[in-house]
C-alpha cells in the first residue's frame, strides 16, 4: 500500500519536473523573469515531493497486529546494559542503555474519514528506544540514554508536520505508540508487537518473565 503511495507521489514529482522544465526553456523570454520564477518554484516543489515520498517510504503498512522484533539485554554494570534489537527482517542494532527499565516508541499514522473507509491501513515506523531509572533522584542526576532506531534522513519529516496539524484535520492522526516501561535484566529477551492501538511487549524467556514478576 505505502509503496504504491510512494510511487504516485514520485509520478507527481516527475510531472512537476516536466512542467517546470517546459516553463524554463519556453521560447518567449519576454516574460523571462516570470517564467524563470515559476519554473524554479515547480522544480522546487518537485524536489519537496520527492523528499516527502522518501520519508513516506520509510513507514510500514499496519493491517493487523504482528511482531516487529525482539529486544535482548546483556548486563555491563549496575544500571548499565547492552541492548540488541532485531527487527522483523532480521536486521539487528546494538546500543547501550542506562537505567532499570526500557521503552520502545513507534510513530503511527492513522487515517480517518473517507481514507479509512476506502481501506487505507494505518502506517508505522519504529522510532526510538530509551532507558529509565526507577527513582526520581536517579532520573534527575544520572545519565539518560535514548537511541534512534529510524529517522527522517532527507530533511522532511511528514509525521512531525502532520502531528502539528492533525488535531485540526479530519483525515489523519499522527500519534506515538509506546510500549509500557519494562525491566532490563541480564539475559532477558522480549518480543515487541504492534497493533492499531500501539506497541505491546511480552517476555520470551525465563529471565524476562522473572524480572517482570519481581517488578510487578
UniProtKB/TrEMBL annotation:
Q: Does the keyword Membrane apply?
A: yes
UniProtKB keywords: Membrane, Transmembrane, Transmembrane helix
> Which residues span the membrane?
30-54
What is the designated name of this protein?
Cation/multidrug efflux pump
Q: Which organism is it from?
A: Microbulbifer aggregans
